[in-house]
Specification:
single chain; alpha+beta
């Protein structure tokens, strides 16, 4: 055998042995079909604990009324916001009115470093009318979120991914809104 071939074969054997040691060395073993069937199952995520949230919905008196619900509420603030908004969008369970007068979807939630939550809802299919509708929508969402997520300072509501100046001409939606208890029934 030629010396050159011998050294090439020896280098190949050493390389394969080193590769085998790295892959199957101490504390490691090849995953077999049996391991996949009998091994530990992939852990399922622990569901968020049920907590009571206070949601605000308009009543016949023109004010927002609280409705308490127990929902799985995650620890992460953006997920809390998502949960609260989805519950508000689902509507009231009692004799109150929905906050959003169209079938809206939550498309995004983002929280900036200043504590402002940005929520993006699908835009209304047709223009809304009336200052009351605009106020109930804005503060039904904003106050429900801020009362359940006290670490936040304000809420910016986007529609269809865009800031809009107003929905009906009475309230400025181009800037974040803060908690306003003036519209909450006592």
């Amino acid at each position: 055998m030629n010396r050159r071939v011998f050294w090439i074969l020896a280098a190949a054997v050493v390389s394969l042995a080193l590769l085998a040691w790295v892959l199957f060395g101490p504390g490691r073993h090849a995953i077999t079909r049996q391991d996949m069937v009998e091994g530990d199952a992939i852990p399922t995520p622990t569901p968020a604990p049920e907590q009571r949230v206070m949601l605000l919905f308009p009543g016949s008196d023109g004010l927002l009324h609280p409705e308490l619900r127990s929902v799985p509420l995650p620890a992460e603030v953006h997920e809390k916001v998502r949960t609260v908004v989805l519950e508000v969008l689902a509507g009231p369970t009692g004799n109150l009115q929905p906050v959003v007068p169209w079938t809206a979807e939550l498309t995004a939630v983002f929280i900036d470093h200043e504590g402002t939550a940005f929520i993006d809802l699908t835009a209304p299919p047709k223009p809304l009318t009336g200052s009351h509708n605009e106020l109930m929508l804005a503060y039904g969402l904003v106050d429900s979120i801020l009362l359940n997520c006290p670490s936040l300072t304000s809420i910016q509501i986007l529609f269809g991914g865009h800031e809009i100046p107003t929905l009906t001409g009475h309230l400025d939606f181009s800037r974040p809104l803060v908690l306003n208890k003036r519209f909450i029934a006592s």
